[in-house]
Design goal:
It contains ten helices and no strands. By secondary structure, it is mainly alpha-helical. The C terminus is likely disordered.
Length: 199
C-alpha cells in the first residue's frame, strides 16, 4: 500500500488520467486548427475559474507559490495569436468545479494541473510543428514553464509533501480524481456522453 502523498496521487489517479489523455488525443497528426482553437477555448473556460477558486483556498504564505503557476493568461495569449480573440465568453461555473474542503484537496487538484506540464513538453513541439507556430511563444500554454518545467514540478512535489498533513491525503486523492473527471466532462462533452466513452 502506498503511503507517500505523491505516490498515492500518481497511482490512484492513473485510470482517470488515462481516460482524459485518450479522450483529448493531442498527439494525433490529423488535429485540425479550428478543432485545436475550440479546445483551447474550453481549456480557458475551465482554467480561469479554477485558478480564481483555488487561489482562495491558499493560505497567505502560499499565494505567491500559486500565482507563479497560473496559466489562464497563457491560454488567452495563444488564442489571441491563433484566432485574434482576446476574450472567451464561455466559462465553467465555479459551482461545477470540484469542492476544495481543505488544503489537501487544493493540492490534489493542483497536482493534476501541474502534472499536465510534464506532458506539455511533448505536446507543445508537436502542436508548433502541426500549425507552424513559434514553439514556446504561440503555444505558450502547453509549453508551460519551458526549460523550468522539471524544477517547477520538483518544487511543487516538495511543497505538497511538506504542506499537506497525512490526515488530508484521502481528500487530496479524491479532489485530483474529481478534477480529472470534471476536466474530461468539460473539455470533451460529446465523448463523455458517447456510448463506451473512455473505454
Amino acid at each position: 500500500m502506498q503511503h507517500d502523498l505523491l505516490s498515492r496521487l500518481k497511482h490512484e489517479t492513473s485510470a482517470s488520467h488515462t481516460r482524459l489523455e485518450n479522450a483529448l488525443d493531442l498527439m494525433r497528426n490529423d488535429l485540425q486548427r479550428d478543432e485545436y482553437i475550440a479546445l483551447l477555448e474550453r481549456f480557458y473556460g475551465y482554467v480561469a475559474p479554477w485558478e480564481d477558486t483555488l487561489r482562495h483556498c491558499m493560505p497567505a504564505s502560499l499565494k505567491d507559490f500559486f500565482d507563479a503557476r497560473r496559466k489562464a493568461h497563457l491560454l488567452a495569449a495563444d488564442l489571441a495569436v491563433l484566432s485574434g480573440e482576446r476574450t472567451v465568453s464561455v466559462c465553467m461555473s465555479r459551482n461545477d468545479l470540484p469542492r476544495f474542503a481543505n488544503l489537501g484537496a487544493a493540492f490534489g487538484s493542483m497536482y493534476v494541473m501541474e502534472g499536465s506540464t510534464l506532458g506539455g513538453r511533448f505536446i507543445a513541439p508537436h502542436i508548433a510543428k502541426l500549425f507552424d507556430l513559434t514553439h514556446g511563444q504561440d503555444n505558450a500554454y502547453f509549453d508551460g514553464y519551458g526549460a523550468r518545467t522539471g524544477s517547477m514540478w520538483n518544487a511543487f512535489r516538495a511543497t505538497a509533501q511538506a504542506q499537506v498533513p497525512e490526515s488530508q491525503y484521502d481528500d487530496a486523492v479524491a479532489a485530483a480524481i474529481a478534477t480529472l473527471d470534471s476536466l474530461q466532462a468539460w473539455l470533451c462533452p460529446a465523448l463523455t456522453e458517447s456510448p463506451g466513452a473512455g473505454a
